[in-house]
Each structure stands twice: as C-alpha cells, then as structure tokens.
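Quick entry, no commentary yet.
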Amino acid sequence: MSDEEKKIAVSGIFVFSVGLGLLFFVFSLAY
C-alpha cells in the first residue's frame, strides 16, 4: 500500500465516521 492510498483510506474512514456522527445527531434532534 502506497502513502497516497493510505491517505485516501484514512480520509475515507474519517468522512464516513463524521457522516455517521452527523446522521446520529440529526436523528437525536428529530426524535
């Protein structure tokens, strides 16, 4: 795995976890 691929993987996981957190936050506000 190259450094470039590692950066893409890390940013992908970061975006995914932030999106999941936002989704959970919106649901907690909605209900």
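second:
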Amino acid sequence: IIIFAHHKAIMDALDSHLKSLKYQYIRLDGDSSSETRKKK
C-alpha cells in the first residue's frame, strides 16, 4: 500500500497509528535525506 498525504500532520498521525499497531512500513517525506530516499 502506498499512502500519500498533503500535510505533514496527517503523516505524523498515520505514523503514530501504524506504530501502535506494530505495522512495518517505510516513511519518506520532505525531511528524508536524498541518501535515505535512494536506499529505500
């Protein structure tokens, strides 16, 4: 599943929720370095 969100606050809320459910996921956003993006 790929999830897109326009607002970082929405991504933060999703991040919290997925962590509480112990889901494994990768998050890439504007704060991710280009090196991190290349690795993912």
